[in-house]
Amino acid sequence: MGEVKQDRVARYLALIEEPASLDMLVQRVAEEGSLVEICKSLDVPHGRVLTWLMADVARYQLYLRSLEVYAHSKVAETVALADGADPQAVGKATLQVNTRFRVAKHHAPALYAEKVEVKHSGTVTFSHALGAIAQRRLAAKREAEPAVIDVTPVRDETVL
Questions:
Q1: Could you count the other beta carbons within 10 Å of the beta carbon of residue 147?
Q2: Measured CA distances, 150 to 9, 13, 19, 144 (Å)
Q3: CA triplet 41, 55, 18: central angle to 5 degrees?
Q4: Checking phi first, is residue 57 left (phi over 0); if not, alpha (psi -120 to 50) or beta?
Q5: Which of 37, 70, 120, 148 is most deeply packed, by most CB within 10 A?
Q6: Gap between the Cα atoms of 44 and 2, Å rounded
Q7: What is the pLDDT of residues 87-134, one digit of tens each?
Q8: Residue 123: how many CB atoms within 10 A of its CB?
Q9: Does the pLDDT value for residue 159 go beyond 70?
Q10: How far is residue 111's CA from residue 67's CA, in Å, rounded to a whole number?
């Protein structure tokens, strides 16, 4: 068992030392999508390969870009799936289309994720905002300043 693990690690080391490996990996990810499956086919540890990709910003950006390319290809498949769906198998085609869009939303959210629009429906005047800021500062100043107690002796003329 230890020998098999050593062989996988040796293959991993050979993979990351080969200059063309990064190009091969990102090309396969762009076409196949799953780094896990690619690593299985190469018989190298997925976690180590992903860690190696993430260790360098430029290398990781190439990997993320390849996932984005994969997302585009999945979206491109949806029209053919929907148009070619057998009326008896509409549920299956719907599932396939929805799954491809979920993958695309995950890998290329800027293009395929739902856009959330936030609308402000109140009014805030500038003087109101300044007044609120002044009130908060005044309250903070009062909390920060210690109370001053006057301890000046008072002469009592009746005691003498």
A1: 5
A2: 79, 79, 80, 19
A3: 50
A4: alpha
A5: 70
A6: 14
A7: 788 888 889 888 888 888 888 888 888 888 888 777 766 787 788 888
A8: 6
A9: no
A10: 13
